[in-house]
Structure formats: structure tokens, C-alpha cells
Amino acid sequence: MSEFAVGESDFLLDGRPVRLLSGALHYFRVHEEYWRHRLAMLRAMGLNCVETYVPWNLHQPRPGTYRDVQALGRFLDAVREAGLWAIVRPGPYICAEWENGGLPPWVTGEPGTRVRTCDERYLSHVRHWFHRVTHQIVPRQIDRGGPVVLVQVENEYGSYGSDTGHLEELAGLLRVQGVTVPLFTSDGPEDHMLTGGSLPGVLATVNFGSHARVAFETLRRHRPEGPLMCMEFWCGWFDHWAGERVVRDPGEAAEALREILECGASVNLYMAHGGTSFGGWAGANRGGELHEGPLEPDVTSYDYDAPVDEYGRPTQKFWRFREVLAGYHREPLPELPPLPAPLGRPAEVTLDGWAPLGDVLETLGGEERTAPLPPTFEELHVTRGLVRYEVEVPGPRQPYPLTLRGLRDLAVVYVDGERAGVLTEEEPRLKEPVAGPARVELWVESLGRVNYGPRFGEAKGITGGVLHERQYLHGVRARGLDLDAFSGGVTRVPFGALPEAGAAGLYRGTVIVRGPGDARLELPGLTRGFVWINGFNLGRYWSVGPQRSLYVPGPVLREGENEVWVLELRETGPDRPAPRLLPV
């Protein structure tokens, strides 16, 4: 058993000064069979510690319903076996470019609840969550023979709010649940963030991508004593759909890392290995300086231009970082572990069955609900997926504009069964007016909940109403199709022959694999949707890029026949080539 403590200027392990050379790796973004490989890659880069968030919404999809919280414990056991320390960031808010910043939508969507404050209803939910998650953390602390040396209180709270009483409540809850290792906060190196997000008696750390000396000078104005640590050294960045691929020069990033270490500070590379937002869990941001602008959905890949790429391979940045970090070790760094085997040979996917979205909804969807105004995704208990709204335009009446007030995020509109257009937040009105009587069908898709900024926690769906001219259309019927509904399989879906032309719907097929291994799935001719292989949800694809293929971890595939489902939400190209698996 060892004791890890915060000294006047250093971290102390059994009274001896130590420096944390950490890297972020999210266990929930890496296939479990690859945890040990990725941890070995971090050790080979020269790191002695790993940091992970814990996504509350992944582990508690419904009130009172928990899903594999033990995965965190298994990951921490793998960390200990790899000879690394661990930093755990249990939230409740994590950001992480993750759906809703890690908070369950049934919490953020609860009427009257004020999240990330001292609101008692919110804190009541957090208490239950902390009770569960600390069962995985507490017995694995370093003073009990485990790897955990630090636990975070909230996350970058100073960029969101100033309710430091809320942070005190969270710190108290962690202590009551048995967390004995040092607690910490992390914020941007700005005065208003540090005053709003730090706590007396709790280690304050800062997050940045460059100008380490300036950042630490700001931190020292607020905390004259204590170890210096950059809890998030942004050595890369994430990508948005329809945006450009973001990369950082390896040499420049290595020099920024060197500057941090020359300041005598500890560091956590964010990300050391980004992984993948499988299952449609990628979040979204709001554009603009104040994060109030257009929605910017995050791509499925969380490669992050990290030193260990999405497939677990070392990049040029890995080797440059390894050179810098080697100078802080007395012994030679470990050799790299063997890379996982790639797919044996390319393989085409044969799609031989199709069901229209309406049939999929009837089979796998939730209960239909009728309300005066459109219920939100939250009210329909849809976390990730889509909702079909139906409403009647009374008649007879002349053509008027049809507008979706408060649309989030995207709607495919049908009038009397004919497709009439695609609406977005920026363009919520149909180009052609609608006469009555008419039946309007609206398939609304969430492109990812906001994970950062003042609009964090906003609802999804049609949040204002359906307007015909200036008149609300009442009596809206709504039914949701949540991605989790596919976890039980699609055997009940009534599949038929493929449509003559490309169409939205659920496509079913197979792929014959010879030599299972890491692969990427290309989907030429498809527009936007989700893919499952052998029931494993690879995430969202979208033809707008910049991501052009989906990562398929080798353990997902099996020798011989593999089942494939493709949920296409727009339509396919007229001459659709077959999807294909390629070796990474």
C-alpha cells in the first residue's frame, strides 16, 4: 500500500517527489480486448499514468437502470497490471466531445431541474450516480493497492458557472463515498475560469495547448503553492462533420510538451489515444466565439490527431513525444507491443434485405404519443436516434408556409406521402407552401447533443411547434426510434427485397471474412446513418466528410459469415456500390 499526496511543490508518493506523465485514454472509446495493447503503447511512449473520464449517460440510460458500470473497474485493473497509475474523472459532467457532456438526457430534460448547480433534484441524481461509480474507484485507490492517484471534481466548471457551492457539494459526496486520494479541479488558465471552477483545499490544474509558462504564471497567481499540472495538454483536436480534418505539427507539439516539462510540471496528454465514439455517442458543439452559433456535430472517429492513432498505431507525433519523455526516465523505455492483426483480405458486403423506416419504427420503436405540441426526444425517452412526428393540416385552406419552430437538428419532411424537403435549424421552412387538407410526416434526427458551452443540455426534436403560416398545428402524434432498440437484434423487422431506387430504411446483409482483424468499412453511395456488424454499432457515417470510413475493431469480426445492418436515414445513390471491408 502506498500514499499519494499533494505537497507544497510536488506530488508525493510515500513522501518522495514524483512527476505524473499521463495520457488520456477513454476505456469506453476502445474495444475492451484492446485495452491492454493501448496501455502498453502509452508505457512505450514514456508515460507512467493514464487518465479517463466516466460517462454517466452510457452507464445509466434510465433512472434506476445501470449498464456495466463494472467496465470502469475492469479497466482500472488492466491499468494496474500494465504498471501505470490512474487519474479518474467521474463527472458528473465530462464534456469529452461525448453526447450531452456525459449527463443522461433524462436528467438534463427533467422539468425544473437545474444541472451543474446546487439544485437539490440534480444533486439527488448525482448522489445515486456517485454511489455506484465510486464502488469501482474506491477499492482501486493507491492506498488500497490499486492504481488510482487522483480523482476530479466536476470538469472545467469555471468555463460554465460560478456556483462553487456546487463544487463543494460534489467534493463532499466523493469524500463521503470513500475517496481518499487527492481531489482536483481543471480549468482554462484564465482568471474567471479559475475563480469560478476551483476550490480551497483542492488541487487546481489548468488545460491548454501552448504557452505553458504564461498558463502556469496565471495558475500561480491563484495558487502560490502546490504541484503544477497541465491536466489537458491539447496535443491534437477533434473534427466536425462537414468540416476540415484538424491536425497539429508533431515537432511543434513536441516542443510545447517540452516547455511544460521544463516548467517542472506534471502533464496529461489529451488525447494520448482518442479511440472511437462507437454507438452514436459522439456529441456536438455550437459554433461562434460564445458557443451560441450553428450546431457542429462531432464525427464518429475520435482519433484527435493523437500520438497513438484510432487504429492503435504510433504516429510521427508518438515518436517525437517519446524522444522528449525518454529524458525523464532513468531506464530505457519499453519496446512497443505488436500491433493487432489487420483484416486478412478485403471483403464486399452483400445487402439482400430492406425495410422502410416506417416498418422499422413499428417493430422497434417506442409507444406512440399524441400531444398538443410536439414532444421532445427527452419526453419520448430517446437518447440517440430519431422521432417521427405526424400532424394534419386542416382544410380546405390555401397554401401557406410550413415552419418547424425550434427544430433540433434535422427533419426529412413528407406531405401526403411525397417527400417535400429537408429542414434544419438554419432553414426550418419548406420551400413550397402546403395547402390543406394534408398529412405531414416529419422524421427528425438528432445529430448529437451539445457537450460544451451555455447551450449544453438543450432538448432535441421539434422544441417549439409546427406552424402553418402563424398558426400552430395541434394534435401531434410522435414515436421515437432509439438506437438502443437495435441491441436486441432485428429478427422481428419485416425485411423485403431491395428497393429499385435508393431509399431510406434498414438494409440487412452479410460479409464473408477470411482472417478477422482490424478493418475499416467504406460505404460508397450511402448518405447518412448508422452501421452494425454482428450487433456492434460502429457509429454514424455521413457522406459530407471529413471522415470517409468507419473503424471496425478486429474482435467484432469472426471467420466466415458476419451480419451487417445499415440504417440509412436519407437515401442511397442511384448506382450504389457495395460497402466493403478493407484492412487498416
Concise structural overview:
Belongs to the glycosyl hydrolase 35 family. The protein is of the alpha+beta class and 584 residues long. It contains 11 helices and 30 strands.
What does this structure look like?
This protein has 584 residues and is α+β, with helices and mostly antiparallel strands. It has an 8-stranded parallel barrel with strand order 4-5-6-7-8-9-10-11, surrounded by 5 helices. The protein has an 8-stranded antiparallel β-sheet with strand order 27-26-29-24-14-30-25-28. Helix 3 packs parallel to helix 5 and helix 9 runs parallel beside helix 10. The chain is built from 11 helices and 30 strands. It folds into 3 domains: 275 residues, TIM Barrel (Alpha-Beta Barrel); 89 residues, Galactose-binding domain-like (Jelly Rolls, Sandwich), CATH 2.60.120; 127 residues, Sandwich (Jelly Rolls), CATH 2.60.120.260. The protein is globular.
Total count of strands: 30
Query: In the CATH hierarchy, what is the architecture of the largest domain at level 2?
Result: Alpha-Beta Barrel
Overall mean pLDDT stands at 97
Percent of residues in helices comes to 10-25%
Radius of gyration, rounded? 25 Å
Overall 3D geometry?
A: globular
Assign the CATH class of the largest domain: Alpha Beta
Task: Provide the low-confidence segments as ranges.
Answer: none
Largest sheet: 8 strands, parallel, barrel
What structural class do helix, strand and pairing data support? Answer: alpha+beta
Strand fraction equals 25-35%
SS element count, helices? 11
- N/C terminus separation: 42 Å
Overall tally of domains: 3
Largest sheet, order of strands side by side? 4-5-6-7-8-9-10-11
CATH topology of the largest domain: TIM Barrel
CATH superfamily caption of the largest domain: Glycosidases
Active site: 156 (proton donor), 232 (nucleophile)
Domain Glycoside hydrolase 35 catalytic: 11-326
Pfam family, one: BetaGal_gal-bd
Family: Belongs to the glycosyl hydrolase 35 family.
